[in-house]
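[Meeting: bench + compute handoff]

Bench side (C.D.) handed over the final construct sequence. Compute side (W.E.) agreed to return the predicted structure before the next meeting so the bench team could plan truncations. Sequence as handed over:
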Amino acid sequence: MRLIFTSQGRTAMINADGSGLRYFEFDVPEQETWQPCAFFSDGRRILLLSMEARRDGPGKPFAEYYHKTPTHMWIYDVEQDALSAIEMQQHLAQFQTPQLLLNDERLLIQVVHDEGGQIYNAHLDGTDARPITHLGEGLPYGFSLSPDGRRLAYHLASPSGYQIWTSDPYGEHRTLVAAHDDHLYFGPSWSPDGEWLCYQACLYRQDPGHDWADLCISRPDGSEQHWLTTGQSLWFAATYGPRERHGGGSNMPGWAHDGAVLASCRLRGANVPWQYQAQRPDVDHFNREFMPQEARGGAHICRIEIDAKTSKRPLTEARQSVWDFRQSLSPDRTQLLFCRAPTGESPSIWVAEADGKAARLLSRGWRDLGADHPRWMPSV
């Protein structure tokens, strides 16, 4: 079993037993960061995104300048150690990022202009690009493809709030699954049997930093919505790191192979060290101050059943000042992969047995500066 992760703008591969650590080295001018986006069906080729130097920064607000950063897409064969550029026959925008690989020939791609963002279903080279959302609807992302490949699920940051929708792969036959003025719905994911969607619900009015959320499920047609947790008990907006090197990103629940849901759950009374600053404008898409004196508790990985007798079973230990997140089970169902970040420290990559036992450190990242976004490579 192998997995990949990111660290300091690099992508690395490592075996689940800790051997074979390798950082991919790409000698391509002007590319500042590299990140994996998806795997092709052969299991050895990876769709990669690279970015040039970011165009936002001091005096240049994130919302106005970040999308002016040029991006590029590549295919990397890990067995042949061969990188090839995807030659775009049609450029939709300077900033365009893969959202979901539908098959080996087509993908969903997010395109952002000054006027806003939208999603296209296109060939890898950008041709035959068909818009599945339109300007003015809001920014869609967080896409998930149904097991049979016939339906998409996604959240839409619309003028009416964050909503959960489904559609066919070309944006037709849409269904509104979840929407509420007081709830930010986020990150839908299909169950293995295609019968349910799970997603998060954040009470954003009282939590503008989106630190916490609850876990919801519903049928893909929006019926039978159930809240599987209460009290905003999931760690949603993962933030971490020391004062001089912070990071973060939305933390997503995910399905186990048997239909349970794995999620990062807060300890009772937990409070993060990176505190959101609601009183000031957000110009960097982070807008937080490092306040370790305010930190309490932590988060651990739990298994949540979805039947009528809902239960939550811890998989990793509940420990003060330890935050576990980004959890997933290996394709063979035997190992649990996750990140761990002690309060005020950068995250590292860990694996454990599927029940959470025998957790062991795999990597602290490039030069021990932290690692994030681990994912299993396909078993083919």
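W.E. noted at the follow-up: The longest strand covers residues 106-113. C.D. will use this when planning the next construct.
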